[in-house]
Amino acid sequence: MFSGCGPFVAGVRFAGGTCKIQVTVRYFSVAGRVFDQSGQPFREDAMHDQKETLPLLAMTALGVVFGDIGTSPLYTLSACLSVMSLQPDAANLQGILSLIFWTLVLVVAVKYAWVIMRASNHGEGGIMALTALASHATGHSGRLRWWILSIGLLGAALFYGDGVITPAISVLSAMEGMEVASPAWKPLVIPLALGIIIGLFLVQRRGTAAIGHLFGPSMLVWFLLLFGSGLTWIAADPQILLALNPWFALHFIGMHGFGGLAILGAVVLAVTGAEALYADMGHFGARPIRMAWYFLVLPALTVNYLGQGALLEIHPSAIQNPFFRLFPAWATLPMVVISGIATVIASQAVISGAYSATRQALLLGYLPRLTIIHTSAAERGQIYLPGLNGLLMVAVIAVILWFRSSDALSFAYGTAVTGTMMLTTVLVFFVARHSWKWPLWKAGLFCGFFILLDGIFFGANLMKFMEGGWFPLVVGLLVFTVMSTWRRGREILARKLYPEAIPVEAFLAGITPTEPIRVSGTAVYLTVRDQGIPHTLLHNLKHNKVLHERVIILTIKFEEEPRILPADRVTVRDYGQGIYRLTARYGFMEQPDIPEILQSVGSSGFYWSPSDTTYFVSRQRVIPAANASLALWRARLFAVMLRFSANATDFFRLPPNQVMELGDVVELSREAVSGASSLGKGG
Questions:
Q1: Which pLDDT belongs to residue 319?
Q2: Helices (H), 315-385
Q3: What are the C-alpha distances in Å from 119 to residues 152, 282, 434, 658?
Q4: Is the pTM of this model over 0.70?
Q5: Where are the beta strands (DSSP E) in 527-681?
Q6: pLDDT tens digits, residue range 622-681?
Q7: How far apart are alpha carbons 148 and 298 in whole angstroms?
Q8: Which of 145, 152, 230, 410 is 20 to 30 A from 239 (CA-CA)?
């Protein structure tokens, strides 16, 4: 089972006249993946000297973590100036740039990089991992847990709004650089943006492993260009450095009052993608991400924003697109190409994040089973979800055609980002109090300050609700409704299907040497319950009047942890008479594989042969009906989702020609389950 182990520490001690040798394995690998002695994925913090250096990991993180925030200079400053049609004079520019700089410092450097990245769920980050961590820290029952799960679910739902808007605004802003080169090319902006988006989504099925290694160096070049172009204009107008003084931000808000708060809705565009620092922590670890942020990304972004401000002080006519005006006229088209590459990388990171978040949500029971295709044999994180990919592509195309410019999309973007940030801060409060053991005053002071700050940003975006702020809220509400309906529907369905399970002992008491007839081979029955006889077994016995010589009752549980140690994966109980119960535990970052589970079991007396095994799975058809816990329209929605849910054969990687599918017709009402059932060959 173990494919290798790393350095060990050995020691000899004497106890009671015997010699005991102690060996401590520092890390071991299973199926190509490396774990430490506690079973957690072994990260670069402990072994970067063995494989990769910290700077190399930091550069690799550039292409995944910082694509979104790295392309924000394309549109942020121009969006800020367009909110109130402000003139690019020294007072306005210094105030806005000061707001941008201190937003980067407070939100990204302090809140995310310094504090939130400490909330590691066994090395993983992201709002779903944070929700599981907060839920575990506060207990597994009670109304508080329900609120925490609801907050996390809403935050995850808002993430999908971000996932739709990011490719649209990023690619649009890059293509709008063509207007700087020549106004005659303006009609090409929308068609080219659509072409890039369609090509980006079509290539997803091939996976990104082949080009992923180019993302880091490409973004390194991008950030160096940001730094160099900004530094050139700062040298021409050093006075712009005064914007680093926070007094100018406060003075700007005081001078413009209510209008100054409205501009915060555009200022927050500077920190779009900050959530990726935490969400992608599991891929690289905290140290490389922090290193890339503090030593490259933050300086490059700061210098570029200041450079745009210096440019506008010298040439106010560049207000339409200050980013591309930073470069000489001959470099405009090359920069359009380079920025297009950068925005594709940013979009790819968001799309991959949507895949990952969706897989986590469905494994935790918030979404129906979806077809998941692994696009890389070496990296399990490289996945492709055809259904989600198609929905995202259609949604992004619709957003581009509806809003038609990056400025029009700015408030829609800000609402999604600030909503997710605010909910993340709420969850961190529970982790700080119950997991980190912070005193109430400390947790309240930190989280209260950032909830207030996030709330101001969120409110500023809602002031432009009709101009686009409605879009991510609608998307988030739809996703939240789908997730909560599926979760609730499954709970009701489970109660209908398993009102009272027959105890295994009672079932065994009815087995005699002659009845029922025992046939050769192994039968594997999948069930969500970890006790009693599954109804699929009873149905098979009723229809076929036989029982296999070996019966395996298999339950797969998904825990609120990213990964489960292979040694703790499966537990086996032998009931006798050839009947076993297997319980397999998986984390929400793992993909279950039933044949692999059976092959890993090495209990004495347990025998499994792949060739003579039949897998029995259940598939339900729901008749919608009003229920005290589920409205009729939600029952109908649940029935549709259940109908289009991917079958267990594909999801659990079962051999199609060895699967028997048994069906139940269930009415979602207070009455008992309808009696209809069917039996058919799967595949």
A1: 87
A2: 322-325, 332-363
A3: 14, 11, 12, 44
A4: yes
A5: 546-558, 570-576, 579-586, 613-623, 659-667, 677-681
A6: 877 766 567 888 888 888 888 888 777 778 888 888 888 877 777 766 543 333 333 333
A7: 32
A8: 410
